[in-house]
Amino acid sequence: MCRTSSTHASWLFVRQAEKLDEKRHQSVEQICQAHLDLETAYQLGQGLVMMLAERRGADLVAWLIQAEQSGPPEFKKMAKGIRLDYAAVKTVFSSEWSNGQVEAQVNCLKLQKRIVFGRANFDLLRLRVLCRV
C-alpha cells in the first residue's frame, strides 16, 4: 500500500468519483479499506459533493440524518452546524448563483493584509491592493 498525505486523501475524498483516473480511484479504495470510518466518511462526502453538483437541496435532510446516525464524530458535528443555519445551506444547494468570485477577492485581500501586518501602514496595503486591480 502506498502512503498518501492527509491533504491528498482529503482532495481525493471530495473530488467527484467519475473525474478520478484509475490510479486515484485505486488510492481511494486503499484508503477506504484501511478503516470502516474512512469508508463511511467517503460515502458521506461523496453524497454531499453530488448533492451540491446536482443542486439537490431537497436531499439535504436525508443526508443530515445519515451523517448524524452513522457518521464519524466530525460529520456529526458538521451536521449539527448545518442544522443551525439550515435555510442558508439549503439555498446554497438549490441556487444557481455562487459567491465564489467574491470569496476569492476577500481571501486575496486578507492575504495581502497578513503579508504587510506589523511591517507597514495602511497606505502600503492600499497601494498593494490597488496595484493588483
UniProtKB/TrEMBL annotation:
Pfam families: DDE_Tnp_ISL3. Residues 8-129 form the Transposase IS204/IS1001/IS1096/IS1165 DDE domain. InterPro entries: Transpos_ISL3, Transposase_DDE. PANTHER family: TRANSPOSASE FOR INSERTION SEQUENCE ELEMENT IS1557. It comes from the Bacteria. This is Transposase IS204/IS1001/IS1096/IS1165 DDE domain-containing protein.
